[in-house]
Amino acid sequence: MEALFDIKSIDRDALAEAMNQNGYAIINNSLANEQCDELIANYNQADLYRKTVVMERYRFGLGEYKYFNYPLPNIITNLRNSLYPLLAPIANNWMKVLNIDTSYPLVYNDFLKRCHDNGQTKATPLILKYGKGGFNTLHQDLYGDIYFPIQMVIFLNDADVDYTGGEFVLTQQNVRAQSKAIVLKPKRGDILIFTTNFRPVKGSKGYYRAIMKHGVSELHSGERYTLGIIFHNALS
């Protein structure tokens, strides 16, 4: 499977603006229905995965997800390699305005080498499945000391058609203020790019870190499948 859309067609300035202003951006119609169907159909193909997590067992929520094993399916490899160079300059700008002494290489394999050198060798892309009553508690996907501050999720079936409820939820913790909740309902085949840990927000005295977490609200009916793509590797 190959990515449906042309990476060159993405407006980099608009992507950066959305990430800087909101902490998330949506790329519409990125995968074809047939690609989404194939990813769902392969959910029970055991040799593709290194680990299955039953969320209720760890009080993560109610549902199940599976981490892919290396070598990853081509579509995941292509999406990681293609989108990382668009996101690395955004991440580097965030580090700069927050005065954090971290920079990310512009070539994805160079970033993966940094993970490997830190002992983070396990694949982190995953496919998630929720049924009626399923949900995911607010969390962050860090997996080790080396992490990339932006990740993405691809919606593999249709909200309000294949399932109801199950909205994607982001929360932003503001300094000396109540947290902000953001509720999103991307369509099938859309890519949602969002903040992994924190993003810069401009205040009266300069930029500060706004901590962000993400989760999934309770499903009322049906089944919900998503593909999560995290750029850094895990320790285990």
Compose a concise summary of this entry.
The protein is α+β, with helices and mostly antiparallel strands and 236 residues long.
What would you note in describing this structure?
With 236 residues, this protein is of the alpha+beta class. The protein has four helices and 15 strands. The strands form three sheets. A seven-stranded antiparallel sheet has the order 1-11-7-15-5-4-2. Strand 9 (168-173) and strand 10 (180-184) form a beta hairpin. Helix 1 (12-22) crosses helix 3. The longest helix is centred in the middle third of the chain and has 24 residues, at 74-97. The chain starts with 11 loop residues before the first helix and ends in a 7-residue tail after the last strand. The model has no long low-confidence stretch (mean pLDDT 96).
Our Rg estimate from Cα atoms comes to: 17 Å
Helix content: 10-25%
pLDDT < 50 runs, ≥5 residues: none
Q: Report strand %.
A: 25-35%
Notable traits:
alpha+beta, six-stranded antiparallel β-sheet, 236 residues, 4 helices, seven-stranded antiparallel β-sheet
Topology:
Blueprint: H1 12-22, E1 24-27, H2 33-41, E2 49-54, E3 61-62, E4 64-68, H3 74-97, H4 108-117, E5 126-130, E6 135-139, E7 150-155, E8 163-165, E9 168-173, E10 180-184, E11 191-195, E12 198-203, E13 206-216, E14 219-222, E15 224-229
Antiparallel strand pairs: 1-11, 2-4, 3-6, 4-5, 5-15, 6-13, 7-11, 7-15, 8-14, 9-10, 9-13, 12-13
Helix pairs in contact: 1-3
